[in-house]
């Protein structure tokens, strides 16, 4: 389960990257659900999320995300690890 | 560029390159794209509007940035993914420019660099443009 706050924080990033002010996302959202989620916008999404949340991903890691929920949980795990350090 | 170029890039790293707004650059841009707005081609008109001479096309700077990214840094195996360019002051024919890029973000997962670019007009002694580019490494 993802904290609602994480999805709330991800939403404006998704809206900016995909240029859609009305875009809504949920844990179940996948690339197929979002018009314009191509390889370049996928890169843009990772770049924006790393900057906004102050986290770093590994190439292998992002290949394993099945949906936005996986993405959000990975962000939360990294933030929790930062707080413990 | 060596295979491990990307791994050696560091956030905060700076790279500079000089450019010249030469007659050849101006003419080449004018002939290629055809923007013959009076500000760009009529000296008297430009002066009547308060400029020192014919105002060089701002998009010439985009060309310099393209050359910088594609040839200088990162250079080979790079692809410009986005460019935001803000103009601060006009440039004139013959001006010399210094482009300085600072690595602002390095995203290893997708092999991307985000560069903050300041372009200083050394002839006029002022920053003429600022840009932010996103570059992918193939």
Detailed description of the structure:
- The complex is a heterodimer of chains A (85) and B (138).
- Chain A is built from 4 helices and no strands.
- With 85 residues, chain A is an all-alpha fold.
- With 138 residues, chain B is α+β, with helices and mostly antiparallel strands.
- Chain B has helices spanning 5-8, 23-33, 38-41, 43-48, 59-72; strands at residues 14-20, 78-87, 96-107, 112-121, 126-137.
- In chain B, strands 1-3-4-5-2 form a 5-stranded antiparallel beta sheet, with helices on one face.
- In chain B, strand 4 and strand 5 (126-137) form a beta hairpin.
- The N and C termini of chain B lie close together (12 Å).
- The mean pLDDT of chain B is 96.
- The A-B interface holds A 40, 42-44, 46-47, 50-51, 56-59, 61-62 and B 81-82, 105, 107-110, 112, 114, 134, 136.
Could you spell the SSE succession of chain B in H and E letters? HEHHHHEEEE
Which word captures the global form of chain B?
elongated
Shape of chain A: globular
Distance from first to last alpha carbon of chain B: 12 Å
Strand order of the largest sheet of chain B: 1-3-4-5-2
- Which pair has the most extensive contact? A-B, 14 and 11 residues
Helix content of chain B: 25-40%
Mean pLDDT over the residues of chain B:
96
Give a quick account of the main beta sheet of chain A: strands, pairing sense, barrel closure.
none
The helix/strand order of chain A is: HHHH
Per DSSP, the total helix count of chain A is: 4
List keywords for this structure.
heterodimer; A: 85 residues; mainly alpha; 4 helices; 60% helix; B: 138 residues; alpha+beta; 5-stranded antiparallel sheet; 5 helices; 5 strands; 28% helix; elongated
Secondary-structure map with pairings?
The complex is a heterodimer of chains A (85) and B (138).
Chain A: H1 4-17, H2 39-53, H3 59-63, H4 68-84
Chain B: H1 5-8, E1 14-20, H2 23-33, H3 38-41, H4 43-48, H5 59-72, E2 78-87, E3 96-107, E4 112-121, E5 126-137
Antiparallel strand pairs in B: 1-3, 2-5, 3-4, 4-5
